[in-house]
Amino acid sequence: MNEKQDFTEGNILTKLIRFMFPILGALVLQAMYSAVDLMIVGRFGTTAGISGVSTGSSIMSLVTFTLAALTTGVTVRIGFYLGQKKPERIGPLLGGAVCFFFVLGLILTVVLLIFARPLAVLMQTPEAALDLTVTYVRICGGGFIFVVFYNFISSIFRGLGDSKLPLIFVTIACVVNIAGDLILVAGLHMNVAGAAIATITAQAVSVVLSLLIIRKKELPFTLKREDFRFSHEVGRFVQVGAPLALQELLTNLTFLALCAFINRLGLESSSGYGIGQKVQSFVMLVPSSIMQSMASFVAQNVGAGKEARSRSAMKCGMGLGAAIGVVIFYVVFFHGNVLASLFTSDTLVVEKAFEFLRGFAPEAVVTSILFSYMGYFNGHGCSFFVMIQGLAQSFLVRLPMSYIMSIQPDASLTGIGLAAPTATVFGIVVCTVYYIIYTRRMDAHRAQS
User: What percent of the chain shows pLDDT beyond 90?
Assistant: First the structure.
């Protein structure tokens, strides 16, 4: 591990920024997948196509984000072994993880192919967009094994402190996806089917090229044939990743429920929310990059026994994210209609998207604070608490508030959008209380020993 990948020494803010910004870049490009799909379908397809891509990508995001959360267990275990100066334990970890994620990928592929229509119906997809939504989910589901291994490979390099290679992988995928959309949707007028084919082809190309790049790269561990088995290392990374995956699954189910609430308000509201959701996905990129960086940064320092440095990193993440969030809040709150108009020229759909974004905008600031806490706790392996607080804010605040706002006479998407930052503030309070308790316990334990 070189000096840049060693988070246990040097200036915290400088190293955090250097590691975080390639992750942010990768997340931006990854978010471009469905955003470009929606943008090109909005320009060259139909309004029903916008709703189909929006609802279909919401279903796919549920599965993808759950999977990505599970791979966090791999990231944390790698960082922990590097902090302990035990890189020889990484090979068995990764060999077991390959077996695990291959089997999981096959299972998820079958589930998406079989349950595409029931899921679309459950989402209360508008009738005009139902078949288009099913098409999108089935095509993406058919190639889901590539999505699985893209996220797994990225988790490996984040654990190694290398955030640049995942950026290269996703850049390749984004270029392929844009080219595919232009050819299949704009050129051949394949609408939603073309967007789905472009997306999954891009993931496949990215995985294949990433494997070729990895073969030529010098790594701080060796991977042997005998490492490819279901060893005890599988249980160790699953123990960290499973609570996060469960939280992500259940949290995204609340977002699917929110999508269903809004779908009942009509095609324009459904399409407007779909566009607002794409803008929302970009707003969340800075907090997400901070959380992923924090988990790797803290895991190394926990392994090295440098708790004070872990806490300082968390506070740096909060300050950095909130400062950037203020700028993003201003743009989204006051100019969200301009952002929405990038996706469609339908003025009513743009108006509905802007309604949602004005309520959602404060999330740009508060989520960076919450996600810094979550990255800190994930780096310590406290993923069970992260799950509990995530479920509490989703089911006690976000979902009930969204439902209540959606059934009001002349319901506005602004009130529904406001449910997200309200739930996040609740999560910050819960995390602050737990942080005080957790750090006091650790300090008392060290004092006794």
Answer: 29
